[in-house]
What does this fold into?
Amino acid sequence: MPKTLLVALLTTTAAGASVAAVLVSPWWWVAGGPLLLVALVAVHDVAQRRRSVLRNYPVLGHLRFALEAVRPEVQQYFVERNVDGRPYDRDTRSIVYERAKGTDAEEPFGTELDLYRPGSEYLTPSMAPRPVRADPPRVRIGGPGCTRPYDMALLNVSAMSFGSLSANAVLALNTGARLGGFAHDTGEGDLSQHHLRPGGDLVWEVGTGLRDRIRIGASGKVATGGDLVKRLLQGADYTNAARAMMFALGCIQAQRCHANTCPVGVATQDRRRARALVVGDKAERVRRYQRSTVESALPIMASMGVEGPGDLRPHMLLHRVDPHTVRSYAELHAWLLPGQLLASPPQEWAGDRQAADPDRFAS
It folds into this structure.
């Protein structure tokens, strides 16, 4: 039946029910009201010129837009597997949520991951494990000439600026850092009042120096104790986490950060949405998550036969190159000697060294 005839029939029926409601009984509005509303939508859909779907499928075409609006939620909660989500999968998010809430966050034996897939990585256990140390180690920042050295925690809040995050989110992160005794990186933005008010330790990004005078903090997909240990043995002195700290605040990975419509008030400047984030509660979640994650890294290091981060070495992390070959990080990368880039750089570095210019950043 042509859509114009269907719209006409619907309009006529709605008009008839409305007339009956006026002349016969108000109970006709039970049918007439909804029919009249649907008829108006159908007429509008056929008359409008912007959306072809609605012109060809009046009323029913709106179902397509409704399903498209909820597609990300359906994908996240009903379609994807525990190990499929991006940028973080469900398993990793669950670990962060549980540690932030102070509930059970122990990981079971076994795995859902395909360990024979190229790119898989795993740490090497030792036949002579060490006792788990009771106190998490810290990293001294500042050399002999430093008048105010700082002992950095193994896990800290990574660079997330106010503006990218809401005022309440920044307040909760810094309050959590103060409660837990770890540092909060300000990010590329301003040092706002929301960073300063709680009184937590701050790292203000102003630049970097030479390797023998600085400590390296690594960030990027650091969410669990295993991630922390991997970064330390790859050469970092301590680690920072951004997205995982957002999870601790309550981020549900809705991927609406760019739209100012974050449903939990983390990545938004909409004050009404930000009010959903209760600073005191979320600060405690940040503190618990950081503490539990660092504590989970200690038995991992002990099981690898080391007493602390200083004993970790690249050969303790294995990387699957193909289904039949595994290489350690000591084998995968060229490890440079002090001053080697200035004296005699490896041939594979020659092109990059030639293109490097100390007077500019752009190529």
Observations:
- Residues 3 and 56 are 7 Å apart (CA to CA).
- Residues 3-68 form one domain.
